[in-house]
């Protein structure tokens, strides 16, 4: 659009929209070149002289061209700058409203700030609880497994009713994952139970295993267990939620169909953003952790480097901004394991169930969850394998 005062062509951006404090009706557009205050009515003239210009200078002929306009370009008399300013003021202190504003009014992709805190910060705030011993407020346990050529890596995570999490253990099970190695050790983890300080024992609620590598062996392993106890998962960058409903996949052996499995898609990008937001949370002055806070025991530095191994960068793809995760530290398995454990927690209902329901999963009631005198009975053995249900293979 040309500035009606100096004529300089510019794309209209929200940051140039200004108004008197608390008075969105005074909204005007400040020319980025001459600083003149452009009024809404000038749009008529600006539209007549506006031109389309490529945002990426060099593009090959076979590329698909996309067009992008935000609401600042609404024709005169339609959605006004004053309305946009007013919408922003209503949304700015509420992350979910702001997200809607960015997506719909500005027409831009909302991205959680994809930056982990420095690993040293997390390392320095480690807590002295013992590995494999549960705190009183843990409601259920999930395990996330990353598959490598010569080993399996896994994190055991305990989840609380307010979505705080405790890392309970991080293990590396060595063995060639293409020839059975490591898998029997992993089967032992599925059967393990962890003792909570009130005497309750908790099993693995769901174990989620990445299928990106040695897929056949992962499928074989999952098929040894209840269909909703040990699940295969597949990362999907574009998925804007934790997990999407499972798809049925055929399991084949030597070209022959031997069965079916439910494969779950994981919104890895989405969950990494969420995790990195959670890792930046701090305890308050009295040492009370907020919801979503992540507790860690005294792991070594490699764990924390791995957990914070990636960062989100903005790249322009075909004229559009895209946010992509790139590794800045090679060994990112702790990050992947945490994402899969979080996926499993989403399937259990971490995001869906009310706090009292989550507490009840671990035999806790909200009022007694921090007291030691409640003595819930230990869970009865393993659930029977269900047949014919929605979740079954
Ligand atoms: Zn100007």
Distance between the termini: 58 Å
Task: Enumerate the distinct ligands.
Answer: zinc ion
What is the general shape?
Answer: elongated
CATH top level of the largest domain? Alpha Beta
Q: What share of residues are in beta strands?
A: 25-35%
According to CATH, the fold-level topology of the largest domain is Nucleotidyltransferase, domain 5
SSE string, helices as H and strands as E: EEEHHHHEEEEHEEHEEEHEHEEHH
What structural category arises from helix and sheet content? alpha/beta
Could you characterize the architecture of this molecule?
With 393 residues, the chain is α/β, with parallel strands linked by helices. It has 2 domains: 14-105, no CATH class; 119-361, 2-Layer Sandwich (Nucleotidyltransferase, domain 5). Helix content is 24%, strand content 27%. It has 10 helices and 15 strands. α2 runs antiparallel to α3, α7 crosses α9 and α8 packs across α9. The longest helix has 16 residues, at 333-348. The structure holds zinc ion. The site of zinc ion has 8 residues, from loops. Zinc ion (ZN) binds at residues 3, 5-6, 8, 31, 33-34, 36.
Relevant terms:
10 helices; 393 residues; 24% helix; three-stranded antiparallel beta sheet; 27% strand; Nucleotidyltransferase, domain 5; alpha/beta
């Amino acid at each position: 659009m040309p500035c009606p005062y100096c004529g300089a062509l510019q794309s209209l951006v929200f940051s140039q929209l200004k108004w008197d404090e608390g008075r969105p009706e005074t909204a005007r557009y400040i020319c980025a070149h001459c600083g003149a205050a452009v009024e809404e009515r000038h749009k008529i003239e600006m539209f007549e002289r506006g031109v389309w210009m490529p945002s990426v200078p060099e593009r090959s002929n076979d590329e698909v061209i996309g067009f992008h306009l935000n609401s600042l370009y609404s024709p005169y008399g339609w959605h006004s700058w004053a309305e946009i300013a007013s919408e922003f003021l209503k949304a700015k202190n509420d992350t979910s409203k702001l997200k809607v504003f960015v997506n719909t009014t500005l027409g831009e992709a909302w991205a959680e700030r994809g930056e982990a805190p420095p690993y040293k910060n997390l390392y320095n705030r480690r807590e002295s609880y013992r590995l494999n011993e549960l705190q009183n407020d843990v409601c259920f346990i999930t395990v996330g497994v990353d598959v490598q050529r010569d080993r399996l890596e896994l994190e055991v995570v305990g989840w609380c009713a307010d979505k705080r999490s405790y890392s309970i253990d991080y293990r590396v099970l060595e063995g060639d994952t293409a020839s059975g190695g490591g898998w029997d050790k992993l089967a032992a983890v599925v059967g393990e139970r962890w003792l909570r300080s009130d005497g309750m024992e908790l099993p693995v609620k769901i174990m989620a295993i990445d299928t990106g590598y040695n897929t056949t062996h992962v499928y074989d392993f999952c098929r040894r267990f209840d269909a909703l106890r040990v699940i295969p998962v597949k990362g999907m960058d574009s998925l804007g939620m934790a997990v999407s409903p499972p798809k049925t996949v055929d399991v084949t052996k030597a070209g022959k169909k031997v069965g079916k499995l439910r494969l779950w898609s994981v919104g890895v990008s989405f969950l990494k953003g969420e995790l990195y937001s959670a890792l930046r949370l701090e305890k308050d002055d009295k040492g009370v952790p907020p919801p979503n806070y992540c507790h860690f025991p005294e792991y070594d530095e490699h764990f924390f480097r791995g957990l914070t191994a990636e960062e989100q960068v903005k790249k322009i793809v075909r004229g559009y901004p895209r946010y992509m995760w790139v590794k800045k530290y090679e060994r990112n398995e702790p990050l992947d394991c945490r994402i899969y454990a979080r996926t499993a927690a989403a399937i259990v209902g971490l995001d869906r169930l009310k706090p009292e329901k989550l507490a009840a999963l671990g035999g806790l009631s909200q009022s007694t969850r921090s007291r030691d005198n409640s003595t819930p009975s230990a869970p009865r053995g393993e659930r029977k394998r269900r047949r014919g249900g929605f979740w079954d293979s």
